[in-house]
Amino acid sequence: MRLVRPHLLAWQRSKYSAKHREGTNLLFHIVAVPLFQIAAIGLVAAIVIQGRGHRRERKAPTPFAGPADFVSRFVAEQWITFPRFVVSGGWSRNIGPLPTPDRRRASRRRRRNRAPAPTVSCRRRRRACGR
Q1: Helix (H, G, I), strand (E, B) or coil at 32
Q2: At a CB cut-off of 8 Å and minimum separation 6, what does 74 contact?
Q3: What is the predicted pLDDT for the residue at 122?
């Protein structure tokens, strides 16, 4: 059993115009195709963003057992587990205080005022650097 039709794009294109003539169907397609494309990009972005977020957690998520495990866990988290977590109050309990503009500015100031790391030449010439 083949998963993908041989020469799929050429086959689709050769039959496409004859099978896409009805006005309402064409209107549906002009709306549905860009929605699908945006949703696909959004899905990839959601996976990347959440993956980066999970890397920040102290407790790492359980590794995926395979593609089916990944899909089932991802879909369940988006549609059931995370909404349930939000509605039950878990999200608001765990979010804690968000950084305010004042805290962000203070953090930037501390980073700016730190002494710069010694350069390679400074490490080699300890006397010249005053060490």
Answers
A1: helix
A2: 47
A3: 53
Q: How far apart are CA 107 and CA 67, in angstroms?
A: 41
> What's the maximum distance between 2 C-alpha atoms anywhere in the chain?
84
pTM for the structure as a whole: 0.60
Q: What angle do CA 41, 42, 48 make, to 5 degrees?
A: 95
DSSP 8-state symbol, 6: T
Q: What is the pLDDT of residues 9-42, one digit of tens each?
A: 999 999 999 999 999 999 999 999 999 999 999 9
User: Token match 């089932």: residue?
Assistant: 72
- Determine the Cα–Cα distance for residues 107 and 101; give it in Å rounded to an integer: 10
What is the phi/psi pair of residue 99, to 5°?
-65, 130
CA atoms within 13 A on the CB side of 85: 13
Query: Is residue 107 very low, low, confident or very high in pLDDT (cuts 50, 70, 90)?
Result: low
DSSP secondary structure, 69-97, as one string: HHHHHHHHIIIIIHHHHHHTTHHHHHH-P
Average pLDDT score over residue span 84-99: 89
| Cβ atoms 55, 61 nearer than 8 A | no
